[in-house]
Design brief:
5-stranded antiparallel β-sheet; 4-stranded antiparallel β-sheet
């Protein structure tokens, strides 16, 4: 989410790069964050003023969750209430936000740029850019009748997916492409269509393994659910070729996309988490009331565009987006496929012919508000343990169906290491950074085969995990929250940039990648992409602190 917003600006805007990477001191970074957030605040104010609040119905936003998780409830309510002013269109919201911010720092053409290979800044011409999104297994076309049309995506004419699949947008020297977590890694999926009821029923989607779904599979026989024998080819995202910056930034950050009524099985899986305890307690009246609320949400067209159609076009350009058709799909935030986007990056190195005899080094950030005080499995633990042999993927083959703690929907297991890791082992590795809330850890693993991510066995990988532990929400989506958190975000950025111990740990971690004589030559491994570290100690941490600002601004971690 925020990481994509940051990286697209970093790779394609010289004005952004100059203000961030070439900042001479931490105060300039502080000032830049304030400027960025002020532009965002002004955009929200203008959107609200332009909206006819007398006609807008915010009540639907109160029914998106019955969860006892207050953080999730508040997130969905705030996000929904803001998107009302953008006709519920997440991609339009992202476009307005990024364009407004870019204008504030002098890049007037940012919204028109493609996320291409040739137009990357010169410093990144040899650095691959990977943007993590997820393609949902089916979508729904409203027909305005008792029955709608359902579009099912599968690996063959006879099979359909039950879980979202990883969709990584890859930019490298050879061009751009979408890489999916399929056997071929390509977009050669098939689509099947059939009628589906316009009214929601949990029983209609039981084939897709509702919570807790302990024995699920990534695919099921298509005809058993769709009752259709027709099949066609999935259309290339956004017409094929390079996608625009706005398109990839939008599809990778649609965090509430699982609440879109146009992604029916994922929508149902998400709500089934809250339904499960009600069902278990046997309260029929309460269960019927819950099902009725979900059915009302399913009928709300305002929520449709929380997920992004694979043919969405820029609102600012004046082009009218073609309707999502029978060969298209819907994208949602990549967090439900692989939130840290770690597996796709390791896979990219392997697919690109990287040397598996050399140790790969990765800096991984967790932009959380606090680390769990107990060791019970939760979302934060899942983000790390999912890559190792661990209690959350016991008896699950890499790439197979899994629904670990904290995930709103099931997904394909991104396990890539053979070593065992649990919450106790992870906690023992954490080391506080004096004078801050941050902690770091060095994790090590040996890769195993996970073909759907392009990963081969035998790669030694070292990870510098940086955990923020900053009491700042990652969902700053209302004007009040922008005002409340602008200074804390700017101060966080400044403090990270000034932290000498963090700088020392980063330098010690990456230094072996540099050549011995210190001449600043590029590392020998292809696409290593750590050129921002060559500007000296402050530049390295300045860049990281700015990454953490924007990632913390909107990221599910």
């Amino acid at each position: 989410s925020g990481a994509t917003w940051f990286s697209t600006q970093l790779f394609y805007s010289k004005e952004f790069y100059d203000r961030v990477v070439l900042a001479e001191d931490s105060q300039l970074l502080y000032d830049f964050v304030v400027d960025w957030m002020n532009a965002y605040s002004n955009m929200l104010d203008n959107a609200i003023q332009d909206g006819d609040t007398m006609e807008l119905d915010h009540t639907v936003c109160n029914h998106l969750t019955e969860s006892g998780d207050e953080k999730k409830k508040q997130l969905l309510s705030d996000l929904c209430s803001t998107l009302v002013y953008f006709d519920g269109d997440w991609a339009a919201f992202v476009e307005d936000m990024l364009v407004s911010a870019a204008k504030s720092y002098g890049d007037l053409d940012f919204g028109n740029k493609m996320a291409g290979s040739d137009n990357r800044l010169d410093v990144f011409k040899e650095t691959d850019l990977l943007i993590q999104s997820a393609l949902v297994p089916n979508s729904r076309i409203r027909d305005g009748k008792d029955n709608d049309t359902a579009v099912y995506i599968g690996s063959s004419p006879t099979a359909i997916y039950t879980v979202p699949i990883s969709a990584a947008y890859v930019v490298n020297a050879s061009g751009t492409a979408y890489r999916y977590s399929t056997e071929s890694l390509q977009g050669d999926m098939t689509v099947k269509t059939s009628q589906t009821a316009s009214e929601h029923s949990f029983s209609d989607w039981e084939d897709f393994y509702l919570y807790p779904a302990e024995n699920g599979t990534v695919e099921i026989e298509g005809e058993s659910h769709t009752k259709s024998t027709n099949s066609d080819i999935f259309s290339e995202a956004f017409g094929g070729g390079a996608s625009s910056i706005i398109q990839v930034a939008a599809i990778s950050s649609a965090a509430a996309g699982t609440k879109s009524p146009l992604v029916p099985s994922v929508f149902t899986q998400d709500f089934s988490i809250e339904r499960y305890p009600i069902e278990q307690e046997g309260n029929i009246a309460r269960l019927k009331a819950f099902d009725l609320k979900v059915a009302r949400v399913y009928n709300q067209t305002l929520l449709d565009k929380f997920a992004v159609c694979s043919q969405w076009q820029s609102v600012a350009s004046g082009q009218k987006s073609p309707p999502c058709g029978q060969n298209d799909g819907m994208f949602v935030d990549g967090w439900i496929a692989d939130n840290p986007a770690f597996a796709i990056n390791v896979g990219q190195y392997h697919i690109s012919g990287g040397d598996l005899t050399k140790t790969m080094k990765v800096i991984l950030t967790n932009t959380n508000d606090e680390w769990p005080t107990d060791q019970e499995p939760d979302f934060q633990y899942t983000q790390i343990l999912q890559y190792f042999e661990s209690p959350i993927n016991k008896d699950v083959e890499p790439g197979s169906f899994n629904w670990p703690p904290g995930m709103w929907v099931p997904y394909q297991s991104p396990q890539i290491f053979s070593e065992f890791m649990d919450s106790s082992i992870l906690n023992d590795l954490l080391e506080p950074i004096p004078g801050s809330n941050m902690t770091t850890a060095i994790l090590k693993g040996t890769s195993i085969d996970n073909p759907i991510f392009g990963i081969r066995a035998g790669q030694q990988v070292e990870i510098l995990l940086v955990i923020l532990n900053e009491p700042i929400t990652t969902y700053i989506v209302t004007p009040d929250l922008v005002q409340l958190y602008t200074d804390p975000l700017a101060s966080m950025t400044k403090n990270i940039a000034d932290n000498e111990e963090l700088a020392s740990r980063i330098k010690a971690f990456v230094e072996p990648l540099s050549d011995d004589d210190g001449d600043g030559a590029e590392p020998s491994s292809p696409n290593a992409g750590h050129s921002i570290l060559q500007g000296g100690q402050f530049t390295a941490v300045a860049a990281l602190s700015s990454v953490l600002f924007l990632v913390n601004f909107f990221m599910l971690a």
